[in-house]
Amino acid sequence: MSAETPAVKPAVPPPVPEGSPLGRQFAAYLCRLGGEDDPAVAWAVRLACLAVAGGQVCLRLADYAGTTILPEDGTDPVELPALAEWQARLGRSRLVGPPGQFAPLILDTGSRLYLARYWNYERKLAERLLDLAESPAAGIDLPRLRADLDRLFAHNREIPDRQKLAAAVAVLRRFCVISGGPGTGKTSTVVRILAALQAQAGDRPLRIALAAPTGKAAARVQEAIRNQKQKLDCPDALRAAIPDTACTLHRLLGARPDSVYFRHHRDNPLPVDVAVVDEASMIDLALMAKLVDALPEHARLILLGDKDQLAAVEAGSVFGDLCASQGYGLDFAAQLREASGVPVASSDMFPPALSNCVALLTHSHRFREDSGIGALARLVNEGRPKPALDLLNKGDHADLAFVRERGKQVQDLAERMAQGYAAYFAAVDAEAEPRETLRAFDRFRVLTAHREGGRGARGVNRQFEERLWAQRRLWPGTRWYAGRPVIVTRNDYDLRLFNGDIGVALFLEGELRVYFEDADGRVRGFAPGRLPEHETVYAMTVHKSQGSEFDEVLLLLPEAESPVLDRPLVYTAITRARHKAEIRGLPAVLEGAIKSSPRPSSGLGERLWRGGQ
Ligand SMILES: Nc1ncnc2c1ncn2[C@@H]1O[C@H](COP(=O)(O)OP(=O)(O)OP(=O)(O)O)[C@@H](O)[C@H]1O
């Protein structure tokens, strides 16, 4: 990418956060209810509601104070007051109260404006996590732990052995967060952690729950755990303690149809001693608060994830905030050395207790040293667009491709997609087993930043289906045809089909049914008319792809930079690829995304790390 390539800028900064009509209506309703006639307050309420609908927990007033914004409905520009004046006007509103007061919105001392419900989630979650973090695990037999870890990690050639260190952290603390990129050994490590925990518990079998935010992620972790269990060097009794099944977090917590409340909560806690949750970066603030609330007093919580991935689709990036570790405290570092034999330095500062609960895995066993995907993922994370584009432009890596495409030139995309899905359509035409066809579909996927627009998932799906019409694979006007892949967009608790589940329509034994694979590996077929809301899914947004992996990924960049297209989105997209990542779009758009600065820490980060209120 040459330095003179102009960056493609969005029309007018700062943009009104993307949000739903519901967010706008809710804001209008609140203002009517509170008899609010100050436009600066009404705009703050509106922006706060839109921020939540757009995945933020709160509105940072400082981002908008003193600016002129263009309302998204095309009405006249609005000048917002300077920060101090805006705060004062909000302070006079009946709709807004300080922390701890009963009001629809809360304005905290960091000039963050919250809907009260989210302020409460954040406060409760921080309190409970800090409680967990401050209470070390009691009664650990250190010599035994050392012997077990030495044996369980004898195979690891990594120096220093960060997996073993992470295991020592997880056994010595009641709360542990393990973050690492793809293939850094999170699952291998957690299996060994569970064996070591069972060894500490002696004859009392531990009740262990394994969960993940989506069915797909639960199925993946279940398969990985089963594989790793077989490789363990430990007595059979310890191996037997490790569960063979994983479920979705909603199932674990006891989701109830049409209710935001779960069956398990503080007064009816989960019957578990240890809860392990994979793909924890996908958990939003509300769900994490509910998970932590449902843990019994004595239980341990182990969260696995990748801090560099996209945050949850719903409001709140809890996992990223949890990983802002400041190193291990002096005493804890000494204890870790004793338990693991791994040379670990202590922090020069006096880090908060939470810092002792974090372990980072850095060595990928999936991407070899010469892997293009691994190298590109590193450069994206480091925010280095120039070397990233050089790497792509050189074309030295068989697992990477960059197709420079002007914004609207997508004519050969459908051709490329037909090639990517050739093995899938061959399986459909051969009337292969549904499980086999579902696997074939997962070999390739087009990922987009946006859902709408010419280069958004819906437009790409439409264009590809037009090509299928031309080939007479389907007829204009028909919604269903053999091979139509769909993604569920609304939970159906009766059918046990959930938002994000992917199925394929197959014509087998004279009947067209849509087949889905459950988290426990069972394949079920449904008549198309019974499905909950769904859409075609040859292309899907990167957000929806979290927790999944494909052999080949094609990331289609939007025409211009956009607030949605940021560093974590590009990282998440390329690391969904096992064997090949292809990026299509304008170099300037990719450069802008890699350059984007990480989102500032939320109020949760401040509460966890700096004792904020
Ligand atoms: N210490 C190690 N030495 C050799 N191979 C390892 C080691 N740790 C993990 N692996 C191998 O690397 C691969 C990925 O490991 P694992 O599934 O545990 O990683 P992960 O971080 O959970 O991956 P992801 O979440 O990206 O699927 C597996 O094939 C595993 O056997």
TrEMBL record:
Q: What does the entry list as the binding residues for ATP?
A: 180-187
**EC numbers on record:** 5.6.2.3
Under the heading SUPFAM superfamilies, the entry gives: P-loop containing nucleoside triphosphate hydrolases
Q: Does the keyword DNA repair apply?
A: yes
Q: State one molecular function term (GO).
A: ATP binding
Q: Which UniProt keywords apply?
A: ATP-binding, DNA damage, DNA repair, DNA-binding, Exonuclease, Helicase, Hydrolase, Isomerase, Nuclease, Nucleotide-binding
rRNA-binding: present as a keyword of the record? Answer: no
Query: Which positions, given as ranges, span the membrane?
Result: none
Q: Record's Gene Ontology CC terms?
A: exodeoxyribonuclease V complex
Q: Which residues form the RecBCD enzyme subunit RecD N-terminal domain?
A: 21-114
Q: Mind telling me which Pfam families this protein's record contains?
A: AAA_19, RecD_N, UvrD_C_2
UniProt xrefs under HAMAP family:
RecD
The identity of this protein, by name, is: RecBCD enzyme subunit RecD
Tell me what organism the protein belongs to.
Answer: Methylomagnum ishizawai
Q: What is the lineage of its organism?
A: Bacteria, Pseudomonadati, Pseudomonadota, Gammaproteobacteria, Methylococcales
**Chain's gene name:** recD
